[in-house]
Amino acid sequence: MSCAPGRFISFEGGEGAGKSTQARLLAQALRGEGLEIVLTREPGGTDGAEAIRALLLDPAGPDWGAAAEALLFAAARSDHVDRLIRPALARGAWVICDRFLDSSLAYQAGAGGMAEAAIRTLHAIGSGGLLPDLTLLIEVSPAEAQARLARRDGTALDRIGGRGAAYHARVAAAFSAIAAAEPERVARIDGNGPPDATHVQVRAALARCGARGG
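^ thats the sequence. predicted structure below, dont judge the formating
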């Protein structure tokens, strides 16, 4: 795996892991080193994908079944990849994305019961099978995640974040299995400490794959 300029990095993890914070910290640091950084998120990042995000996460919205949910995520990702991610990579920018395919594998397959092969087929059709050069899996204990969510959101959780503890335990187990299966792409980061300590681990993971920083 190479992390030369013009690379794609994703952050993954369960609710309250601190992915968004770490993505912002990394983007800020790499911009300071003179790199062009595109900081984005899933679902989202483009007008079309943001519209689908609103459908998926609205607590008052439809109770999508697992298949419909997987299709919506795949559609949002397809638009995101086509209109934002691939053009940025083509011009040599670094793309830092808060969630990508692994979230669909963990949430819709691992926790939701969809077949992993079906999720990957949708990704192949919609996004050409694109994978990050490096995925940073931020892992925190369930107690720490709950404490962070309470501070951040109170009781106003989105439709997926508000699912029960058993569901989120399955999500965590699925992420763990992905990391175990793809250690060359997925770096596991202990996110239980303060953000600056987690950021140090993130930079070390980038350095190990030949990127700047460390």
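The chain is about 55% helix and 10% strand.
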